[in-house]
Amino acid sequence: MENHEKETNSNFIRDIIDDDLRTGKHKEIATRFPPEPNGYLHIGHAKSICLNFGIAIDYKGTCNLRFDDTNPALEDVEYVDAIQNDIKWLGFQWDNMHYASDYFQQLYQYAIELIKSNKAFVCQLTPDENKEYRGTIKSPGKNSPYRDRSIEENLELFEKMKNGEFEEGAAVLRAKIDMASPNLNMRDPVIYRIKKVHHHRTGDDWCIYPMYDFTHCLSDAIEHITHSLCSLEFEDHRPLYDWFVDNVSSVSKPRQIEFARLNLTHTVMSKRKLLRLVEENKVIGWDDPRLPTVSGMRRRGYTPEAIKDFCERIGLAKANSMVDFSLLQFCVREELNKKAMRVMAVLDPLKVVITNYPEGQIEELQAENNPEDPEDKGRKIIFSRELYIEREDFMENPPKKYFRMSPGKEVRLKHAYYVTCNDVIKDDDGNIVEVHCTYDPTTKGGWSDDGRKVKGTSHWVSASHNFKAEVRLYDHLFNSEVPEEAGDFMEDINPDSLTYAENCILEAGLKDAEPGTHFQFLRTGYFYTDPIDSKPGAPVFNRTCTMRDTWARIKRNMKK
Ligand code: ATP
Ligand code: MG
After folding, report:
1. Residue among 66, 271, 412, 523 flagged as catalytic
2. Which helix (H) or strand (E) holds 151?
3. Distance between alpha carbon 545 and the CA centroid of its chain, in Å?
4. Beta strands in 170-277 (DSSP E)
5. Among 42, 212, 231, which residue has the most ligand 1 atoms within 8 Å of its CB, making it the best to mutate?
6. Would you call 155 exposed, middle or buried from its count of C-beta atoms within 10 A (0-12, 13-18, 19+)?
7. d(CA 508, CA 345)
8. Contact at 8 Å (CB) between 381 and 367?
9. Residue 329 DSSP one-character state
10. Residue 560 pLDDT greater than 80, yes or no
11. Phi, psi of 264 (to 5 degrees)
12. Residues 6+ apart with CB under 8 A from 559
């Protein structure tokens, strides 16, 4: 794994752009983000968005949003809307919004141009024949027997394709490049195929649809994109990108530059796989907080700032690599530490009775909301004779260096008092049901005048003033670092990726928590009120992340 120190945002793409500005090749920089509306955006797209929009902002250029909607069967308006929403949420605004389908007529004209200059032909090889003619990486392909058709015949057949006179698969339009090219993409690639399906924007206007390689570069050219940034798998397509741009009468000559895709541990990123998780109900939807989708991360309580910080830290590379999920969580923690309100909630409660505190008495104590905020005025919390602490904050027979509550040892209750446990109450089976303590009334606020120090501090919630809510604990969706490597990724799903803190007790004020608010539950993690399932007076809390990287710790322990 690489070193992800924060540094300047210079990178090899910005170097190219700087050069192009210096040499006068371009005066204005234009980029685009070109999602296919066949799924929701994920953290990999966020990387591409930060890159494309970030460049436009820094160079005072433009960035378009372009829906690459040339594959009608898989696309949907639901995705189109979600994509726009996610980009805006990340904090970016496109200059123009386009659809590749807006260019269908223009692209069709370009195809006719290619036919007229004898650079494209209608091919009627069957799929099996096509395979055979294509050759392999090691052996050259063979020219299609239809390759030398006259221009007139090609124009006529292409027209017939367009008019629906062929069945699907019966004919394609291909570029005439080089069947012996070592680059398979250059072996007379298909430009148009017949698909008799309804398109979400153009309806039934077309039954031929342009291929990605033809559409993408020419859409870039039409929009005067200067730098077309895409992920590494398109490197071998670059010669074809340039060939199309050079062989039609388009004025602008965009340049394709590739960068490494983002891969994250413990998750899958391809939309095809995400769709399977959604369709087979392994998650509650595209916005399930366990998914690496932008909408899932939003619902989990990640912030745009944290996601952008993450994208900056991973930087741009020319070689694919795997980034540890814990880096993303680190960025989220950094950000939430600044903005989240601190509150107390006990996930797994153990009752504590302060035997020398008067029965029926309560008192208001001052608690801070956020030590990172100089303007913080704090809030009042209720202390009483009976409280709850975290079960793991008590041990009857503790090992050395256990500083939390145990018989005879004085500890601090956060914002409240020093207390000492002097009795442990058990049920018939020997389970601890309650512990009895005494408190020192002179330590109000959690400090002692005589300078007496305690090592352990526990969070707590009053047994008389509190409230219960649904609290969801999220963990990695997959057990393996690279789920695909474990065989079928669906078999690698972590059965405990969502659990509930069923007995969780929260401080009373949280009852009124607004949906979409960040909290730090002291010592247990960052939580976010679910923006969809929370109701007035009944917030639902999603754990955004733990306070520290427990996963890394568990792994370290396993290795020992
Ligand atoms: P998927 O494999 O998830 O289906 P895709 O590449 O087919 O992704 P598109 O909608 O075509 O998805 O992608 C839009 C843009 O986002 C493209 O420029 C693509 O290169 C970029 N992109 C997609 N996934 C990643 C990723 N993991 N890292 C960086 N960029 C990505
Ligand atoms: Mg794609």
Report:
1. 271
2. helix 151-162
3. 14
4. 172-175, 190-194, 208-210, 227-231, 255-259, 262-264
5. 231
6. middle
7. 10
8. yes
9. H
10. no
11. -120, 145
12. none
> Residue 233 Cα, ligand 1 centroid: separation in angstroms?
10
Distances (CA, A) of 58 to 10, 18, 28, 239, 315: 11, 11, 12, 29, 16
* Phi, psi torsion values for 11, nearest 5 degrees: -160, 175
Tell me, yes or no, if 470 is annotated catalytic: no
CA distance readout (Å), 51 to 65, 80, 228, 312, 373: 13, 20, 11, 9, 31
* Cα separation values, 433 from 388, 414, 429, Å: 11, 22, 10
Selection from 323, 504, 370, 354 nearest residue 417 by Cα: 354
Gap between the Cα atoms of 175 and 190, Å rounded = 6
Task: Looking at the CA of residue 274, tell me the nearest atom of ligand 1.
Answer: 3
Average pLDDT score over residue span 1-23: 75
At residue 301, what are phi and psi to the nearest 5 degrees? 110, 10
Q: Is ligand 1 within 6 A of the CB of residue 44? A: yes
Residue 176 CA to residue 388 CA, distance in Å, equals 76
User: From the alpha carbon of 38, which atom of ligand 1 is closest?
Assistant: 10
> In terms of DSSP bridges, do strands 505-507 and 466-467 run parallel, antiparallel, or are they unpaired?
antiparallel
Residue 346, classed as helix, strand or coil, is: strand
CB atoms within 10 A of CB 481: 16
Residue 35: band (very low, low, confident or very high) from pLDDT cuts 50, 70, 90: very high
Cα 189 to ligand 1 centre (Å): 22
- Does the beta carbon of 269 sit less than 6 angstroms from any atom of ligand 1? yes
Contacts for 3 with CB less than 8 Å, ≥ 6 apart: none
- Alpha helices, DSSP H, located in 205-281: 212-222, 238-247, 271-279
Amino acid at 270: S
Predicted pLDDT at 550: 58
Return the DSSP state at 345: E
Q: Which residues surround ligand 2, an ion (CB under 5 A)?
A: 36
DSSP state of 188: S
Half-sphere exposure of 188 (CA within 13 A, CB side): 28
Beta-bridge mates of residue 529: 541
- Residues 387 and 291: their CA atoms lie apart, in Å, by 37
Of the candidates 503, 426, 502, the residue with the CA atom closest to the CA atom of residue 463: 503
Q: Tokens 């305690």 correspond to what residue? A: 454
pLDDT score for 4: 46
Whole-model pTM over 0.70: yes
168 contact partners, CB below 8 Å, separation of at least 6: 194, 195, 196
Amino acid found at 290: R
* 174 given a catalytic annotation: no
Summarize pLDDT for 91-136 with one digit per residue, the tens: 999 999 999 999 999 999 999 999 999 999 999 999 999 999 999 9
User: For residue 269, which phi and psi values (nearest 5 degrees)?
Assistant: -125, -20
What was the pLDDT predicted at 2? 42
Rounded Cα–Cα distance for residues 469 and 281 (Å) = 25
Dist CA 52 CA 61 (whole Å): 10
